[in-house]
Amino acid sequence: MAMTLNQLVLRSMRKNAKNYYLYVFALIFSVTLYYSFVTLQYNPAITKEIGNGMTATILKAASYLLLFIVIFFVLYANKLFMNRRSKEIGLYQLVGMPKGLVTRLIAIENIILWLGAIILGVFMGFITSRIFVMILLKIIEKDAFVELSFSIEALLRTVIVFLLLLMVVILQTAMRIRRVSLLSLITTTVVADEKVKKFNAFQMILGFIGLVFIGYGYYLSTTLLDLLDDPTLTPDKMLIQLLLILTLTIGGTYFVFRFSVALILNMVRKSKKGLMSVADVLSLSTIMHRMKSSAMSLTTITILSATTLGILTLAYISYYSADAMAQDSVSYDYVMYEDTGFDLIDEFDKEGIQYTRHDLDLLAVQADVRPLLLKEFALKKDVSTLLTVQVVSQKDIQNKLPNLQLKEDEGYIVGYDSLSAENIRLESEKPIQFITSTGTDEIFITEVTEESLVPNYHNYNFITVIVSDFYFQKLLHDPLNENQKIVGMELKEEDQLKKAEEVFEENKVSVEIPYPSGLATKTVSVESQEIYRLDILNSFGLTIFISGFLGLAFLIATGSILYFKQMSEADEEKGAYTILRKMGFTTNEIMKGIRRKQLFNFGFPLLIGLSHSYFAVKAGWVFFGTELVAPLLITMSIYIILYSIFAILSAGYYRKVVENAF
Amino acid sequence: MIILRGRKIKKVFGKKTNTQEVLKDIDIEVREGEFVGIMGPSGSGKTTLLNVLASIDKVTEGMIEINNFNLQKMKEQKLAQFRREQLGFVFQDYNLLDTLTVKENIYLPLSVGKVPKTVAEKKIKDITTLLGIEDILNKYPNEISGGQKQRTSAARALVGNPSIVFADEPTGALDSKSATALLSNLEKINKEKKVTIMMVTHDPVAASFCSRVLFLKDGQIYSELYKGEKDRKQFYREIMNTQSVLSGDGYDA
Fold first, then answer.
1. ABC transporter domain location, by residue (chain B) (predicted)?
2. B34-58+75-247 adopts what CATH topology?
3. Residue B164 — φ and ψ, nearest 5°?
4. Helix A55-84 vs helix A86-94: angle between axes, to the nearest 10 degrees?
5. Chain B, nearest residue to A574 by Cα
6. Are the C-beta atoms of residues A454 and A464 closer than 8 Å to each other?
7. What is the pLDDT of residues A528-557, one digit of tens each?
């Protein structure tokens, strides 16, 4: 043999550069992501800064999840890569190269590629890990400086993981070469597409079942929260319910892709009676004939998108809600109870910090909310409507609600948040009954709002009723009711916050306040909204960061897979474009049909993924924060934009293929 | 009326140091209603000639006019539109779209024009009846025979009433029976509908269906034969004779 194996490998690698770049990109991307994450995981400074007993565990769990993504992605990329080269491999065998030699050739190639990718990936991972730390610290609003040294431990781990993966890939390739006959190797690019010819009742039913599955899964997800109130609920039962929902939606999604889509498209095609425009030809019939082979990957992409979106949205909800939650719990920049913490006021004066002071009387009053219940709302048996509500006088809240005008017997509810709404559904234009020592008073509620304007002192996160000053005096003098004097301080200048925080740190005090019963005491301290907010950020920060990180990894992996898939589809369809162009169709006319196809290939999984994630988020968001709509829309929009990049990239690839098809 | 006119057509492949002149100053004229065959040994440039005449490839030098449109002066976009409206194509490997039924394939050239659906239906019905494929309209290409595929391809080329149809070895992949059937069909359509056809072939039998045969050698027109009043057998013999003269020894067809 004149040419040595090594020469042959190098020569074929040079020739295949176009095929390689995708595969190499997938490899480098995976190594980069994995290495930078593991670097964070093994960095003691991180665990210290974000200081939380769970930190190490969370990081470890996340690294496994990341590993899963990486394995999935790399194996998929390898599969596509091998598909594209099946002709070349067939040719080697055709000229008489034994299978063992071909395997060795591919193995050497892979080893060279992988080693290169690992070196480059680790280098890039080292750089990106710094960026990730900066992002993480930014999220939790810490000014700390984290020194990141090159982690040998992380390197070792990355190398071990990827070398193992390389072995799997080589083994897979070897088995593939061994198993496959020469003939089939040469013809794999000719996809054995299913021809949807006849109207098939069985397929129709399966397609319909898919829709029913998804619908029922969605329905079950909406009942998940109610399930929590079920006294007979066991963790097993909850798990079964969750698994059922997952099975229904994932199975349903597959059925929809596998059966409904092709069926519906075929019906549309039939309705055209053979007279299809070029755009239809390139979208409708191509998609229809490919559905059998692409149903699985489209389902995977849908589910991955839904998972990513769900995780990202939930994480973002907690991040987004930090402000609102801080505002809910500490309604003024600083809140002081009774005579606690008045030193702080003196200190503020001394330091020249500008503030407005609001004095409030907070009453704890027994009330029956039964008349206020939403008519359709079925109250659960064991939930009592006799509750302690917090009452505040209109004049005390004037600064926050300047337009509020209440008559003597009118009230206005604030602080009716989503969690309260889960248990008790209230509506306005109805009365609430206050229990006083002289009987019950009916107060007509003009409005029920979510905003929490008053510090919650008397009842944890339940409603506060604003009443007229006149009626408030009556309640105030009723011996049944407990009063708490509160001072809220609002900074006048936002940029004095930092200074105010320093003063606050030095004057933190807490006191024990006895309950009216005198049996127990509770600890009350001067509260700072900023500190509360930072606390929330700190405890959610890592989760948010990790979900963001994994979300990005998922997004890039799914987007790339779709892009790779579209690339090979474009290459396979090149013949059709050549025919059309010879017949006199312009690139633009052909691209019109392709864009429609792209809209389906990217848009449909995205749409179903969005819908899935919406229901998933809806089922459990109340545990993560107080805002649903804004974080959901923001996350979805960003996801759609990033995802579209891949659609645009693949459209660009198609255009190149069409332009060269002649 | 002259429908196609080519003047001093030159085509050079390759770059700078390594060039090869495939077509050397070819002059050609085709009248309306002619059925022209192009023959010649491998490498004589017959497919290249067809491609440049059909606007699929560009000439290096020279001028080509079809229906008084100068191909060299048209922009890419315009050229595509021209191809779609004025030309029809039949290729050796059928070039049908696998994902479309026979009918959908045939409809393609009509799909962009402003042909009303009822008119389109009628045109498809007429041409498929003429070619004897009206019963397989709803079948996919992988369900029909090679002969049927090529007739589908011909139907697609003819359905838009093109000024001229270009066929590149249309019988190359067919058995002799299917080939003869297809050629008889083309001959019939050429005679009855006055469709101008230009066909590249290396098969003297196929060429004998033409009204005129051009012989290419080394990128130049070597000679041409008119059928005139001769019958097909006589014409076939003439073609064979010319071929053997042309190749001297070892004609490769």
1. 4-243
2. Rossmann fold (3.40.50)
3. -150, 140
4. 50
5. B97
6. yes
7. 888 888 887 777 777 788 888 888 888 888
